[in-house]
Structure formats: structure tokens, C-alpha cells
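// run 5 | inverse folding | seed 20
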């Protein structure tokens, strides 16, 4: 250990002679930037949760708030939608983000290589890692490392030009995140990550881990002694305790809280979590008085657009994250500076240079009341719009989502019944057999078919999900099961066992159902065509799930869609998925609609409603969010 530290110390002296360097000065328990003692006040801003058109605004506000660095995740699944496919354009344009950060005068701390957590779908892992069950996550399993290397061999060369020593903003790279809480405790895996990163980025880059400073085991399993270890902790009156644990493990490291929580994550059906600005400011003052560096998690809020929200494992059912990632952060989901922002700014001014730029104004918001939503008909009446018959898959028994090659959203399973079933027949899935929620419909045969909604079933980890039919079902009827992936678990050992869709066989009155057709539902396509239910053969226009649409003309400005007249579903503006709504359980009632998701004042609003037919069938656009309303 001492030999490693000596070599790094010699490297420090060598690097200090160059024009640009950022290193750990182990001998003096500090960072050196260009040879001078340095510490950072950084803020988490996940560019994946904000349209790229707004990145500059958020970064400028961070700089104006007194920060000298920004921390962000480079999320594997955000850039790899399919195996072998990598996307770095639009909202995934890392060159644009890193250039903006550099131009704004913010250093960059790179995280999420390969795992993030972040309340993000599958913690940032791509869905295709679960196509089979023989890939062991976050271990030195050769199959897993092969996937990791494929990703890092693409990402790291893109980051290299932006290293601080190369004239860019990146000062450090995290190689794993809170790994000490994962049961595998595989040091060979960690060493592989370090070796791979250094292969591409060189020996000078500062590599680090983040772990919860509650037990020595977390630090022992979560990091390598050769690299920088940092901790995370919430607002506290006693930051010395957490740093004592860190110092006891790594006596020569600079003190760093890499996740100083300004708020907390939020689940559907639970109260919105908040941290008082005064408590945050008081604790921050104590942290900085210890000469520590700090990264606020989160400093800038965002949105889980599309299907990017994650989940936590629960005893009977998982706890799913809401669409908003506002996080009660100093800068809100919509990019607004808050009272917390200015309180934090005042504390930072005691320890860091005063910002030389003014705080940009918050964006203009717009509103519109009483938008009438037109009921277009049952979702299953538009299968020709939202499915591709060329990729329909058939098998004797259901396949899960990953086996089918589908990543996110919804999967439709169909089978034709070969006998009659009376009212009260029991439809049953396998033990823990749903991922995650199923809307169940039957359709009668013929040109004038009728569609009947049987109900909704949630998964249960400790039981067989089931329901009893509400009517007789006859031979030749088509059973249709729409299964929603509500977000893969993003933290903990249960990630290894994640699968979505139907996970096992399905029975009706104990009769095994066979011969299934399976297809992915692309709800985003609903806005691409004019939907006219009255031209279709199905009857039962109010059979769930339902499709509603409206043509809207609204000032081109940020706004918030109030969904309280509806129950649970997905909202789209044109073909942009705003995310999930579920106001009947809360706490989130509105969905953020940034200006960037629409190019003009006129757009198509589509709601796919899964829970109940709306009585009012209207929505409002508000100039403020509602994130804290919970079902009583």
C-alpha cells in the first residue's frame, strides 16, 4: 500500500510541472489542481433527465450558484437501446454536454461507469443483460465483463479528449457506485474496471468510488485501496462521524461527500420527501468547515421521461419511482432556482470565490384550462397502429420481455381460448409471475367483435397473481393481456433476478393456456395518425385500456399537465412520451412539459388510460407543478 501511495505521490510532483493537472496529494490529504490545493463544490445534474436545449441554462445557474463542478451520469442503457447499438445524438450528445460545461467554467465528475443506481431504470444497465439468466451482474463473470468492456470501449474514447489534462473539464471518474452494499464483494471485478478505464484514459486520471459510510464492510467491499474512496450521507449535525469512518478506512484521502442529499427519492403512493433549506444549509456549513469537498445530490432536478423511472424491491410488490425527479433540489425539475438555491449559495460564499455571473431568470410558464379530451376507443382497437405484425412472435408458452427482445414499456400477449369458461373462472399467473402489471381484456370473434375488460392484476413476490372473470367467456374468444414494465429495480441484489412481462405459465380454471402471440406496443405511434374508433369493427368503446386525444393550441413556453381528471396511464405530446401519471395515489399530480418537446404552439396530446374511464374527460395545463398531493 505504501509503495502505491509513494508512486502516486511521485506522479503528483511530476504532474504539477505540466500546464494542467488534477491529482490526489496523498501526503497532505487533499487534491491538487495545477499544483495548487483544491477542493470542489459540485452538483449532480443528469443530462439524461433534461432536454439538451436546456442544458446551458441549468449549467449557467449552477455556476452562478457558486459551484465549480458538475457531476453527471453517463448511463449505459440511455446510450445503448439495443445490443451493439450506441446513440450519442440529441439528448444523448455527450460532446455537447461536456463542451457546454467547459465553456461555462465547470469541472466535470463522471459517474455511472458501468452502474449508476440513480432511481433510473435498471440502475443504468441495459435490458439485454437479462436476455438470459447466465450473466451475473456486478461480478467478474466473464460474460458480464464482456458486455461492460463493449460499452467502455465505446464510451471512454469519447471522454478522453475532455479530460482536464487534455484541456477539457473532466477531473475524475467513478468506477463503481455503492458497491459495498452489493453482496458479491468481488475485488477482481473492481480491479477489472480500474484497469479498463486506465487502458483508455491513462494513469493520471483520478478514479474513485462512493459508498455509504455506515460500516467498514461497505468500504472494504466497495472500493480498492489503490484508488480514492469517498462516502455519501444525508443532512446531519455530525458529519464528523461519517468522515471518521472514512478516515479510519483510508487515512490519507481527501474528505469527500459524493452524495450530499438535498432531498430524496419518491415512490408512487408515498408522501413527497423534502429536506428543509435551513437544515441543508446548516449541515453544509459543518461539512465545508472540515475542509471537505462536496457534491450535492441532487443540485438540479429533472424528469424520468419515457419509461426511464426505476424501482426499489419490496416484500410483496416493488416500489416504483414517480416520473418527476425534482428531488426537492436547489434547481427544480423545470430549471427554476428555489429558495434552497439561494440559501446554499450564501453558505458556499463563505468558502469559495463569489460567482462573477448573474443568476439567469427562470423560464416563463404558460397555462390553459379545460382542454377537452376526446375518447378514441379501446387501446386494443388500434393494434394495427401501435404494433408491427412483422415482429409478432409466437410460442407455445409465454416468454418474458427480455426473451422477446423488448426493453421497455408494454407487451401484448394474445391467445385464443379453446373451451368455454363460466363467470368467476380463475385466471392465474405463476408465482411472482408478472413484471409488473397486467390489464386483461377478452374479445369475441367475428367482424362485429365485442371487447370486454376483465380487470387489472399486480405482481406479488410471495403469491400467484390472479383474478376471477366477471362474465362468461366462450370458445374462440381472444384473451389479451397487456403487461406494463413499470421500471426495473435499480439497486440491490434483486437486480440479478429482474425480468419483465409474463414470467411463467398462465392458467384459466387450472387449465394451462397455450399458443401465444406476443408483440411490443409502441404507444408513441398513436400521435402519428388520425384515430377514429367509429371506423372500426370493435364495439365497447369504453373498454379499458382507453385512448384519449386532443388537439391543443398553447403558448410556446414551459407548462405542467394536470392529470387529476384521469387515473393512471401514460401521456404523450406528439410522439414524445412525458412519462407515467397516477394522480389517484400521488404524490405527483402534474407532468412537466418543457418547451423543447414541441416545436410549435399546436400539438397532439394523447393519454393512454389504464385504470378508469374519466368522468370529466378534461385536462388543464398549469404554470406551476403539483408534486406533493397524496391520497388520503
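// decoded
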Amino acid at each position: 500500500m505504501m509503495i502505491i501511495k509513494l508512486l502516486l505521490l511521485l506522479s503528483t510532483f511530476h504532474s504539477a510541472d505540466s500546464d494542467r493537472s488534477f491529482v490526489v496529494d496523498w501526503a497532505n490529504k487533499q487534491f491538487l489542481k495545477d499544483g495548487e490545493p483544491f477542493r470542489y463544490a459540485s452538483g449532480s445534474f443528469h443530462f439524461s433527465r433534461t432536454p439538451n436545449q436546456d442544458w446551458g441554462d441549468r449549467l449557467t445557474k449552477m455556476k452562478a450558484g457558486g459551484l465549480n463542478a458538475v457531476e453527471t451520469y453517463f448511463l449505459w442503457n440511455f446510450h445503448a437501446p439495443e445490443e451493439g447499438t450506441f446513440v450519442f445524438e440529441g439528448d444523448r450528445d455527450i460532446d455537447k454536454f461536456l463542451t457546454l460545461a467547459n465553456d461555462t467554467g465547470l469541472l466535470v465528475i463522471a459517474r455511472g461507469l458501468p452502474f449508476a443506481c440513480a432511481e433510473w431504470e435498471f440502475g443504468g444497465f441495459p435490458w439485454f443483460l437479462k436476455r438470459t439468466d447466465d450473466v451475473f451482474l456486478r461480478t467478474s463473470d466473464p460474460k458480464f465483463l464482456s458486455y461492460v468492456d463493449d460499452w467502455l470501449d465505446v464510451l471512454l474514447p469519447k471522454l478522453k479528449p475532455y479530460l482536464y489534462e487534455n484541456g477539457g473539464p473532466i477531473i475524475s471518474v467513478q468506477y463503481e457506485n455503492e458497491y459495498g452494499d452489493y453482496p458479491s464483494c468481488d475485488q477482481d471485478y473492481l480491479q477489472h474496471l480500474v484497469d479498463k478505464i486506465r487502458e483508455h484514459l491513462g494513469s493520471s486520471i483520478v478514479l474513485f468510488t462512493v459508498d455509504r459510510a455506515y460500516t467498514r464492510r461497505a468500504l472494504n467491499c466497495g472500493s480498492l485501496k489503490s484508488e480514492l474512496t469517498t462516502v455519501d450521507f444525508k443532512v446531519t449535525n455530525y458529519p464528523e462521524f461519517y468522515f471518521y469512518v472514512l478516515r479510519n478506512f483510508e487515512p490519507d484521502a481527501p474528505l469527500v461527500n459524493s452524495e450530499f442529499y438535498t432531498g430524496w427519492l419518491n415512490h408512487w403512493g408515498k408522501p413527497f420527501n423534502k429536506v428543509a433549506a435551513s437544515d441543508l444549509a446548516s449541515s453544509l456549513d459543518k461539512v465545508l468547515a472540515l475542509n471537505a469537498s462536496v457534491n450535492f445530490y441532487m443540485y438540479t432536478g429533472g424528469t424520468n421521461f419515457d419509461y426511464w423511472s426505476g424501482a426499489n424491491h419490496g416484500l410483496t410488490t416493488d416500489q416504483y419511482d414517480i416520473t418527476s425527479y425534482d428531488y426537492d433540489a436547489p434547481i427544480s425539475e423545470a430549471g427554476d432556482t428555489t429558495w434552497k438555491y439561494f440559501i446554499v449559495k450564501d453558505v458556499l460564499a463563505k468558502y469559495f470565490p463569489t460567482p462573477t455571473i448573474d443568476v439567469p431568470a427562470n423560464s416563463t410558464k404558460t397555462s390553459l384550462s379545460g382542454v377537452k379530451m376526446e375518447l378514441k376507443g379501446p387501446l386494443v382497437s388500434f393494434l394495427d397502429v401501435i404494433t408491427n405484425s412483422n415482429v409478432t412472435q409466437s410460442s407455445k408458452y409465454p416468454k418474458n420481455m427480455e426473451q422477446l427482445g423488448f426493453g421497455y414499456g408494454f407487451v401484448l400477449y394474445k391467445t385464443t381460448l379453446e373451451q368455454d369458461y363460466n363467470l368467476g373462472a380463475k385466471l392465474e399467473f405463476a408465482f411472482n409471475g408478472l413484471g409488473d402489471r397486467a390489464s386483461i381484456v377478452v374479445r369475441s370473434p367475428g367482424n362485429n367483435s365485442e371487447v370486454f375488460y376483465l380487470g387489472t392484476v399486480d405482481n406479488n413476490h410471495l403469491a400467484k397473481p390472479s383474478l376471477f372473470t366477471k362474465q362468461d367467456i366462450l370458445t374462440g374468444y381472444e384473451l389479451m393481456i397487456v403487461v406494463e414494465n413499470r421500471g426495473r429495480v435499480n439497486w440491490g441484489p434483486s437486480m440479478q433476478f429482474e425480468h419483465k412481462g409474463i414470467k411463467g405459465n398462465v392458467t384459466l380454471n387450472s387449465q394451462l393456456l397455450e399458443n401465444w402471440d406476443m408483440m411490443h406496443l409502441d404507444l408513441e405511434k398513436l400521435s402519428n395518425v388520425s384515430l377514429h374508433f367509429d371506423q372500426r369493427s370493435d364495439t365497447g368503446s369504453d373498454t379499458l385500456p382507453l385512448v384519449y386525444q386532443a388537439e391543443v393550441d398553447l403558448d410556446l413556453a414551459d407548462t405542467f399537465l394536470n392529470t387529476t381528471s384521469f387515473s393512471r396511464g401514460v401521456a404523450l405530446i406528439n410522439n414524445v412520451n412525458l412519462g407515467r401519471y397516477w394522480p389517484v395515489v400521488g404524490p405527483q399530480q402534474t407532468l412537466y412539459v418543457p418547451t423543447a418537446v414541441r416545436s410549435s404552439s399546436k400539438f397532439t396530446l394523447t393519454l393512454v388510460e389504464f385504470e378508469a374511464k374519466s368522468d370529466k374527460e378534461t385536462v388543464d395545463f398549469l404554470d406551476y407543478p403539483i408534486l406533493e398531493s397524496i391520497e388520503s
